[in-house]
Design goal:
The protein contains eight helices and ten strands. The protein is α/β, with parallel strands linked by helices. The protein has two domains: about 1-20 and about 65-145, no CATH class; about 150-275, no CATH class. A four-stranded mixed β-sheet has the order 4-2-5-10. α1 packs across α4 and α2 (about 25-40) packs antiparallel against α3. The protein binds iron/sulfur cluster. Iron/sulfur cluster binds near residues 68, 149, 183, 184 and 273.
């Protein structure tokens, strides 16, 4: 049994909150650069160039890529042979978020109660934490801050099995079309199909962690990803919603077995500031 003290976890989360907000990952940067080549609209091209320049400034100056520094979503893969010492794991994650957002001058966007009070907690906690127990004696931490311009445009539908693959495609395209310019296109589309209602939503969120230049290993899902990307880019929404070809940079689909009576589909839309950084302790 390997021992990990919570201080290591706090420090890692603090650093990951800042890194993810300052540095756009290479797959997204490459997708944006490719977009400049394929975009036909002059406005669209200019916007893509500005987005690339903005990301470069953020990286060099260690500043947030976007003013919406997101709600901190944290994925943990905890090896079953790890023993955590020094306190509560959940408290450690939240302490890391608190320090990361405070010391990194990142906007605090979390309110204490969703409906009645809506008072800012002033330290961007609590984080949304997903715990997963895996083999081994390591802890993998992924911090994925999520802006709500795009989160608000996401959707979930419990289709009937008879709606089949055509129903799945229709729902995904409709969700993106309805979102229009609101999620700050070009977007990344995370899709979860199968499981139960909450499993589909989690699959869609996790799909956003896969690099956009890496296709699903299952040939039928890979084809679906490519087809959806093409259909979405024919919608004409374009960069910043001002029209054009580059509405989405990537569509990542994850699937899971489901019940004989159901076909859940979740679409998690993410903006061009799709952020995530990870560390293994
Ligand atoms: S949707 Fe993304 S790019 Fe738009 S404001 Fe939110 S975090 Fe920023």
């Amino acid at each position: 049994m390997r021992t990990v003290n919570i201080n290591e976890i706090i420090e890692a989360v603090e650093r990951l909150c800042q890194e993810s907000n300052y540095n756009l990952n290479d797959d997204i940067k490459n997708g944006l650069k490719k977009g400049v080549q394929t975009e036909m609209s002059e406005n669209g091209k200019e916007i893509l160039e500005q987005i690339i320049e903005n990301a470069e400034i953020a990286r060099k100056e260690r500043m947030a890529i976007c003013q919406d520094t997101g709600m901190a979503v944290v994925f943990l893969e905890i090896g079953q042979d790890v023993h955590i010492t020094g306190g509560s794991l959940t408290d450690a994650i939240n302490e890391g978020v608190r320090r990361g957002y405070d010391k990194g001058y990142l906007r605090k966007s979390v309110v204490n109660d969703p409906v009645f009070e809506r008072i800012n907690t002033k330290d961007n906690t609590p984080a949304v934490i997903h715990y997963n127990i895996v083999d081994g004696d390591k802890i993998k931490i992924t911090v994925a801050p999520k802006g709500f311009g795009s989160e608000n445009m996401s959707g979930l539908k419990m289709l009937t099995p008879s709606e089949g693959i055509e129903g799945v495609k229709r729902f995904i395209i409709e969700t993106v079309d309805k979102a229009g310019p609101n999620p700050c296109p070009p977007i990344i589309v995370g899709v979860g199909i199968g499981g139960t209602m909450e499993k589909a939503a989690l699959l869609a969120k996790k799909a956003l962690l896969r690099p956009i230049d890496e296709r699903n290993s299952e040939p039928r899902i890979r084809e679906l990803e490519l087809e959806l990307l093409e259909s979405i880019n024919r919608l004409g929404i374009g960069p910043a919603g001002l029209g054009g070809r580059v509405t989405a940079l990537g569509v990542n689909v994850e699937v899971f077995p489901t019940h004989i009576a159901g076909l859940p589909v979740a679409v998690n839309i993410s903006c061009h500031v799709t952020r995530h950084s990870e560390a293994v302790i």
